């Protein structure tokens, strides 16, 4: 079963002049009891950060935080001692675990566009940790699902997280198709960055979502050159 959510149904927040954010799930001042999470995917924020601005230091705990930089770059600093720059095409994962704090700033003279995803971890009380990898997903392999971050150790050369989930990216040319095999005990989440795709016959355009349950196969065809994220998730809390 596929639940379609249009771009217009996202919650838009602009808490500061330098930040424009679209919340796909309940977050900050946006609360919808029926839109708290999808499996262990608790937060998906589509953020645009103005030049020379950003998020001052703030705390996190008991969450797997994944940041995907789409355009621009972000400077990260945390209480674990990490001072890094994450550029377009790179993936960052922080295990907040028992607690950490970090800051994120766009020090460039052009806007920053990123997705930030939070996953409920499969295990609590973990020591905070950090990983970053240049996968080049924004301009990399075409017409296939490229794994970016996963908790499933059968996948190699990806960022690891403490969640029984996998985040994929696809750059799909017009007329091309991808088939993703799944199981009825899994969930599939799709969010389109640009272009137009048909997901099991349902059309999705820029910033549209599909939340899928009880499927065996997800068939995706592009009717216009497209970029999108696909997340494979467990449906049962006992399997997070």
From TrEMBL:
Residues 15-118 form the Pirin N-terminal domain. SUPFAM superfamilies: RmlC-like cupins. It comes from the Bacteria. Residues 156-233 form the Quercetin 2,3-dioxygenase C-terminal cupin domain. This is Pirin family protein. It comes from Hymenobacter ruricola. InterPro entries: Pirin (IPR012093), Pirin_N_dom (IPR003829), Quercetinase_C (IPR041602), RmlC-like_jellyroll (IPR014710), RmlC_Cupin_sf (IPR011051). Belongs to the pirin family.
